Inverse folding.
């Protein structure tokens, strides 16, 4: 602990609060230390570098608390970090009020700074095309397995992975919804698939022609592979693993990483990125917001509107790059 923090900890009110955190709240050493950092920063901001404990905690009012919040904002502190510091001080003063050391909590009712919303990352259309083509490209780079069963699974896995990527991008469904699909969910000839979304709400998703074709090939390869495994009856799920069992969401995440690398696309992307890309590309091409909302299964239109912000930001980037007086 540095000298400044140790000095603040000597304040009897601070010492009592830290003891309360440790003994009654069972807070970790790390949490207690962070509270001390926040309280110290506040004390320095209000009373200055030269002030020494005990501090006049009861003299601070709502305007003191607001000035401290402005100081944090001017210092360029991220909203999440500023919010954490204000929460720390609200808890500290709440303790002082409860112990009758001060009359009012100046941080009570103070509105925390809003956390900026991060726009979802999306693949550019050209990147998306490379990812969709990656299973076939990857298959060209690896030798075919020696055994007959291994060859069949290899053939199926490539067809399956291509179908998975096509379906995720074609429908915008979540990866959890994808791995829960069964053969009965699918009507490949009408190009629709019934999905059980959040809250067990069912919706219809639409399959484009490439997705329909990939699915037909994957299902034929799956049934051929299951027959060799002597697995009779209907498949447990639309997409299966090496053992003919249900494919997991984690498995889909792993296979996507492989194809992102094959397509020379950042590995930070996840299956949900394909959902974001579906929505953004639909809106970029002129689809109306209500239709995209229904296809995504969003309960609120405001949730879908985040994708309009992505489109606007991309337009701004194009404008700034291309316009001579941007």
């Amino acid at each position: 602990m540095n000298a400044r923090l140790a000095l603040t900890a000597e304040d009897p009110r601070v010492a009592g609060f830290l003891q309360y955190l440790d003994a009654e709240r069972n807070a970790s050493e790390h949490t207690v230390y962070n509270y001390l950092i926040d309280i110290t920063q506040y004390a320095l901001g209000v009373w200055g570098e030269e002030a020494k404990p005990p501090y006049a905690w009861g003299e601070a009012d709502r305007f003191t608390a607001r000035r401290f919040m402005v100081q944090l904002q001017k210092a360029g502190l991220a909203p999440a970090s500023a919010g954490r510091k204000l929460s720390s001080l609200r808890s500290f003063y709440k303790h002082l009020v409860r112990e009758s050391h001060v009359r009012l909590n100046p941080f009570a009712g103070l509105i925390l700074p809003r956390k900026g919303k991060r726009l979802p990352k999306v693949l550019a259309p050209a990147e998306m095309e490379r990812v969709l083509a990656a299973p076939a490209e990857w298959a060209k780079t690896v030798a075919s397995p020696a055994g007959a069963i291994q060859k069949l699974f290899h053939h199926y896995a490539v067809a399956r992975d291509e179908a998975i990527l096509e379906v995720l991008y074609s429908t915008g469904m979540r990866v959890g919804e994808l791995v829960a699909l069964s053969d009965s969910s699918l009507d490949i000839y009408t190009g629709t698939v019934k999905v059980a979304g959040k809250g067990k709400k069912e919706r219809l998703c639409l399959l484009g022609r490439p997705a329909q074709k990939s699915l037909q090939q994957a299902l034929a390869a799956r049934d051929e592979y299951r027959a060799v495994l002597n697995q009779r009856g209907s498949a447990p799920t639309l997409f299966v693993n090496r053992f003919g069992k249900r494919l997991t969401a984690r498995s889909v995440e792993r296979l996507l990483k492989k194809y992102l690398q094959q397509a020379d696309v950042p590995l930070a992307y996840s299956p949900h990125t394909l959902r974001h890309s579906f929505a953004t590309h639909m809106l970029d091409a002129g689809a109306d917001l209500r239709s995209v909302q229904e296809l995504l299964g969003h309960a609120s239109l405001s949730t879908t509107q985040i994708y309009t912000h992505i489109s606007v930001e991309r337009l701004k980037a194009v404008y700034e790059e291309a316009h001579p007086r941007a």
